Amino acid sequence: MNINKQYDKIGERYIKLQKKFFTTKLDKPTEAMKKCLPDLKGKIILDIGCGHGKDILLYEKLDAKEIWGMDSSQVMINEAKKLVKDPQKLSVASIDNTYFKNNQFDVVLGRFAFHYLEDMDKGYEEMARILKSRGILILVVDHPIRALVGYKKKAYHIRENIKISLYNKKIKLLIPTHTFAEYLSPKFFKHFYLEHFIEDIDKELGSDAKKTPGFMVIKAVKR
Question: CATH no. for residue 120?
Answer without folding.
Answer: 3.40.50.150
